[in-house]
Design a protein that fits this description.
By secondary structure, the protein is mostly helical. It is 77% helix and 0% strand. Helix 2 packs antiparallel against helix 3.
């Protein structure tokens, strides 16, 4: 069985949904996928060997970078809530990195 391919428009829609923070099952719902198509899509987007998985992860990473940039910009402008959020996010990223380093989780 070969790797299933998706057209560019479909992949672009998946990436758009990933950028706004939707999970694979939510994306499948928004795309109106049902039955076998839904199962194959979920298998592909969750498979580390499939190109769709990589596109999904890159789009999610872009979302995080955009959020970080917005928070940093507001914090630099003196927004107290953004400063608190920036500190909170930085702390949790350090904790997550330490977990990954120590426990591969």
């Amino acid at each position: 069985m070969g790797i299933r391919t998706y057209d560019e428009e479909f992949v672009a829609r998946v990436k758009d949904f990933a950028v706004i923070g939707l999970y694979p099952a939510q994306i499948a719902e928004r795309l109106g996928l049902e039955g076998q198509d839904r199962q194959e899509f979920l298998r592909d987007i969750c498979s580390k060997k499939h190109p769709l998985h990589e596109e999904y992860l890159l789009s999610r990473a872009n979302r995080e970078q955009d959020l970080d940039a917005s928070i940093n910009e507001l914090a630099a402008a003196g927004d107290v809530d953004a400063l608190k959020l920036e500190s909170y996010v930085r702390f949790h990223k350090e904790v997550d990195n330490l977990k990954m380093e120590l426990f591969d989780v």
